[in-house]
Write a structure and sequence with these properties.
Number of helices: 0
Largest sheet: 5 strands, mixed
Structural class: mainly beta
Strand content: 35-45%
Distance between the termini: 45 Å
Order of helices and strands: EEEEEEEEEEEEEEEEE
Length: 221
């Protein structure tokens, strides 16, 4: 009815886990947990529910113990359904490590027209300052580099983004494949990663490559 107040999600309170029964054997449950009251940019955790010994699907805590807004979705032969509720987790759960990806070269865009795109998510906190330097080493041994401040986008929390613009990038053509040598500074700490593009035969349509930094990026755990 127009003008009706929004329906508040069910509050489960504090429980060790959340158990859900569903009659379809091929059902798949996916849970998304977001810190309560944090809005759209709050830190979010996602996982697929496992089936327990009693045949119920089990949602275990994720992230640091606290109150979460949970969206639980099920997919099955008869269709999809979803329910939302709040849950206060009594203990810390699984916390994913930070992830980072980088795209520069593409089979569809010449290197000279490329706009590097690097994303980092899952950091333990938003850094006060972030900067990146990327050295591109071509197949013939030639190299060129670009440097720029990176934006702490804060949505979701713990995210950093570097997206090169025409003013920041002046790359020249060089033969692939390419090695990317990335130096990322987060406040006073320096992290380095190396990746190759393309990574394997047949993945040329995918410009993004994962970055594994040393030392590891600081996560929430």
């Amino acid at each position: 009815m127009d003008g009706a107040p929004p329906v508040e999600p069910v509050a489960l309170g504090t429980t060790e886990d959340v158990r859900v029964s569903f009659p379809q054997e091929d059902a798949t449950f996916i849970a998304r947990m977001r810190a309560a009251g944090g809005g759209e940019c709050a830190r979010t955790f996602e996982s697929t529910l496992s089936r327990g010994a009693d045949d119920a699907f089990v949602l275990e805590p994720m992230g640091k113990a606290g109150e979460y807004e949970v969206l639980l979705a099920v997919r099955g032969r008869s269709g999809d359904a979803a329910v939302s509720f709040t849950w206060t987790t009594p203990r810390d759960g699984v916390i994913a490590v930070p992830e980072a990806t980088l795209a520069i070269a593409s089979p569809f865009i010449p290197l000279s027209e490329a706009r590097p795109d690097m994303s980092v998510s899952g950091l333990g906190a938003d850094p006060g300052n972030a900067a990146v330097t990327i050295e591109i080493v071509a197949a013939d041994g030639s190299s060129q580099s670009i440097s720029s401040d990176a934006a702490t986008i804060g949505c979701p929390e713990g995210s950093v983004r570097f997206f090169g613009t025409g003013d920041e990038v002046s790359l020249t053509e060089a033969p692939g494949p390419y090695e990317y040598r990335v130096t990322l500074q987060l406040d006073d700490a320096v992290h380095e990663a190396v990746a190759e593009w393309p990574q394997a035969e047949g993945d040329g349509s995918q410009p993004y490559v994962p970055l594994v930094f040393e030392p590891p990026l600081p996560g929430l755990g």
